[in-house]
Amino acid sequence: MDGPDRAQERLQARAPEMELIREAQAGSRAAFDALVRQYEQQVLRLALHLTGSEHDAEDIYQEAFLKAFRYIGNFRFECSFYTWIYRIVTNLCLDQLRRKKTRREDQAVVVDQSGDEIDVLGSVSDGRSFSNPGKELDRKVLGERIQAALSKLTPRERMVFELKHYQGLRLRTIGEMLNTTEETAKNTLFRATKKLRTQLAGLR
Amino acid sequence: MNCELAHERIVLVAYGELPDEQVHELDRHLAACTDCSQEREQLLALKTLTTAYPINELDPNFVARSRMRLEEALDAIPPKRWYERVGQRILNNFASLQAAPAAAVLLLIVGGGAGTLGGYEYAAARSAHSAAGLAAVAQAKAEASAAESVQQSGPAEIANISSIEREPNSEIVHVTYNQVVPQHIQGSLDDPSIRQLLMLASENASSAGVRDDSVGLLAAECRAGHGCQGAGIRDALMQALRYDKSVAVRQKALEGLQPYVAEDMRVRDAVLEALLSDSDARIRTAAIALLEPVEGDTSVRQVLSTVANSDHNLHIRTVSRQVLSRAPEIQ
Residues with Cβ < 8 Å from A17, sequence gap 6 or more? Predict the structure, then answer.
């Protein structure tokens, strides 16, 4: 019963945003800045959590909004602006994850937020050192281990897990953002959880 | 439910993506399956574990730095010129027609089809009209003359309609009819053509009055001795005596044959025939009177004796006997 009411509310809430989009399409820089402020926190948070690097996150943020500014004229209100901007961001993140994965396979290292390199492959394979996390690792190290385990996923699995587990998006929305189906997103999530469990088995 | 499906659903239910009815089904399976129950625990442990890598609150400096960098980049982009915006708008409108090509093509086909059909129909109608016009002119001329002649001669003079045919898919009808053109002739009774017409009338005229007139005139001519020597008029009178339905006509024919009973055997036979078989007593009586000059003839006597014995009319039997009794010496 509240479905139509909720849809109406969403529409009303979106009305000012649609106006901003139209103005931005008409060339209003102020309108576009307003849209940036509306979404920048979410974009930065996603990019930072996915890449684990402020530098990469900043690059993704910049490139995403520059693309949005350039192509906002192509936005035809067929989906929400939120989905549209997330599609741009996830694509850029996927590219970044792929580049990073290739680099890691060459170097077998990742860079943490502070810029310190960690030999992820070596540390993950050495299960003994994580056998008692309560005693041997503090929360920061545990986070790094999880981040390392996440980096073992394929970029797409990493993205689906990120969007579902950390961002709490619906599988249908994730499918839309990644230009795929809800069913594919579901299967990708299933594979991701399986891999993570295998990777983190020693940490329990 | 098998365990493989249960494992999938454990993930879905953990992330709130499983429909309620399937949640219930999964719960029943988990209550009975230890392996799947352990699988769920492991997944829940993973969920708990992954919170160790949380999404932290963004550093405001990081956000500000990112925004400044973006603004600088945006400022570096030259503002779109009016024609670029118009071009973009046209492009958008054009793009919004992406779903319409099928409709546009359909519209084109329908339009083209309708135009072609319309043109064809128009041309066909025009050619048919012009062809029909030419034909109509020629036919109209013929028909006009025919109709004129029909009108001139009058509908009463059309003897009969022999055939009617309609041309397919048209209004044109062919009618074949016979027309009788009345003619009038006048001349003397001695005129052979007049006599010919009188003889024709005595045989074929549908009106009893015409036959009566023609036979009366021929008979009068014969009695008057005006050129009635030829076989034609006598034959016509004998024909009338034998076959005409009208008593008056037969009577006149009999009177006309009177001069030739004695001399012409064929006339005598015709009169005897009438005496024997004519249905009217007056004809039979008149025939007896006619035969008086030749009552000595064997055939006449035979007929008279037959009639005297067998004729159902008493008067005729009596007269016949009287005639026979008057000439016994001849016999």
Answer: A35, A38, A81
